[in-house]
């Protein structure tokens, strides 16, 4: 017995970490840990709350199709331009392989999903960026899809909404990605000239060339709570201005306080808020 006890002491850590039969029976993905408060949540409960932590109210990243499900009236959304795919214009090493891997992971051909559906019974065009695809970076196809969606909204005389989630311009496409800033902005300007509504909803994160172009020029600019929104990184700015920035710098709440947003909207209220704005600004209601 003494020998057995000694063996247990030496291997206690290994024995203690062996999963029980009960834990083996738990299907993978049934639980989710909140990245903010670190508490464990049943995944099915998290999905019911649109991926908002019930403990700390942290808004977790959503996929493009998850946003469609919680935003549009049931079975009204029709995607656009799903056949458009990124090539490798600069022959950047391993770029095509990485794009293919993200496509298989997300079920999308690019980092944005575009289409038309109904919100509160009113036809609306939308572009929803997905940070799970190349960190939502903006390449030539992302810019093309957004531009086409804006032009379709202009042609049909309906509102346009974009949900941004991006690390900025896609470096693997160089200047071709930067050109999308101008192209999308011109399309939005023409949309505005027709007296049509454009709403920008910034989610975590919205940075770089995306924040410096179409994300910031909405007729109404909204954001989700605590979303990171900015152009350059915090450390770059601190080194440039040579002073310490506030702790809440580049958060949605900071931007709201300084007049760069119209409202910070909780995810549970987003559809009602958008539906109300579309109704108030609809041409047929004037």
From TrEMBL:
What pathway is this protein a component of? Lipid metabolism; malonyl-CoA biosynthesis; malonyl-CoA from acetyl-CoA: step 1/1
A GO cellular component annotated for this chain's UniProt record is: acetyl-CoA carboxylase complex
Required cofactor(s): Zn(2+)
PROSITE patterns in the cross-refs: COA_CT_NTER (PS50980)
Co-factor binding comment: Binds 1 zinc ion per subunit.
Localization (cell):
Cytoplasm
Q: Recall the GO molecular function terms of this protein's record.
A: acetyl-CoA carboxylase activity; ATP binding; carboxyl- or carbamoyltransferase activity; zinc ion binding
The chemistry this enzyme catalyses reads:
N(6)-carboxybiotinyl-L-lysyl-[protein] + acetyl-CoA = N(6)-biotinyl-L-lysyl-[protein] + malonyl-CoA
InterPro entries given for it?
AcCoA_carboxyl_beta (IPR034733), Acetyl_CoA_COase_Trfase_b_su (IPR000438), ClpP/crotonase-like_dom_sf (IPR029045), COA_CT_N (IPR011762), Znf-ACC (IPR041010)
* A GO BP entry: fatty acid biosynthetic process
- Any idea which UniProt keywords this protein has? ATP-binding, Cytoplasm, Fatty acid biosynthesis, Fatty acid metabolism, Lipid biosynthesis, Lipid metabolism, Metal-binding, Nucleotide-binding, Transferase, Zinc, Zinc-finger
Which positions does UniProt annotate for Zn(2+) binding? Answer: 34, 37, 53, 56
Looking at the record, the residues that make up the CoA carboxyltransferase N-terminal domain are 30-286
Under Enzyme Commission nomenclature, its number is 2.1.3.15
Top EC class, one word: transferase
Q: Which family is it part of?
A: Belongs to the AccD/PCCB family.
Q: Which NCBIfam families match?
A: accD (TIGR00515)
Q: How does it assemble?
A: Acetyl-CoA carboxylase is a heterohexamer composed of biotin carboxyl carrier protein (AccB), biotin carboxylase (AccC) and two subunits each of ACCase subunit alpha (AccA) and ACCase subunit beta (AccD).
Q: What does this gene product do?
A: Component of the acetyl coenzyme A carboxylase (ACC) complex. Biotin carboxylase (BC) catalyzes the carboxylation of biotin on its carrier protein (BCCP) and then the CO(2) group is transferred by the transcarboxylase to acetyl-CoA to form malonyl-CoA.
The protein depicted here goes by the name Acetyl-coenzyme A carboxylase carboxyl transferase subunit beta
Q: What is the lineage of its organism?
A: Bacteria, Bacillati, Bacillota, Bacilli, Bacillales
